[in-house]
């Protein structure tokens, strides 16, 4: 997709690409600012190259305006998601509690996996399934 965006921008030329610049920059910006652990470095390099190409093509001023608008839009979306999450914890405390428990469980599992990878002889205790215990009648 990034190669396609670069080819289209070169094909359209300086004047016809300007209205589409924010649309083209959005996925490139997202790839540059992603913080995922399994991030592909070739994609990051490719997006950087296409950004440089666009900068040369349209000029620094037009590029800067479009890039700042994309940045602003991304920051607004991020803030809105954060605000909605905070509102959801107040509105639906049971859903928030379940999410928090799931996050803590995943954190503990990750910690156990990390310890096992660092010390292969160590086997962390796994949480047992309580499915049968929940079904049993306990007095």
UniProtKB/TrEMBL annotation:
Q: Mind telling me what this protein is named?
A: UTP20 protein
Highest classification ranks of the organism: Eukaryota, Metazoa, Chordata, Craniata, Vertebrata
* InterPro entries hit by this protein: SSU_processome_comp_20, UTP20_C
Q: Which organism is it from?
A: Eolophus roseicapilla (Galah cockatoo)
Q: Which GO terms describe its cellular component?
A: 90S preribosome; small-subunit processome
Q: Which residues form the U3 small nucleolar RNA-associated protein 20 C-terminal domain?
A: 1-116
In terms of PANTHER family, this protein maps to: SMALL SUBUNIT PROCESSOME COMPONENT 20 HOMOLOG
């Amino acid at each position: 997709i990034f190669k396609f965006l670069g080819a289209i921008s070169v094909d359209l030329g300086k004047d016809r690409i300007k209205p589409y610049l924010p649309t083209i920059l959005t996925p490139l910006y997202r790839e540059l600012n992603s913080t995922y652990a399994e991030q592909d470095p070739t994609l990051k390099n490719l997006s950087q190259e296409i950004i440089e190409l666009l900068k040369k093509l349209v000029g620094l001023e037009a590029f800067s305006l479009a890039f700042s608008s994309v940045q602003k839009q991304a920051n607004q979306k991020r803030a809105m998601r954060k605000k909605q999450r905070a509102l959801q914890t107040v509105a639906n405390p049971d859903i928030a509690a379940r999410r928090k428990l799931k996050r803590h469980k995943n954190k503990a599992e990750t910690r156990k996996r990390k310890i096992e990878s660092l010390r292969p002889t160590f086997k962390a205790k796994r949480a047992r399934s309580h499915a049968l215990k929940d079904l049993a009648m306990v007095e």
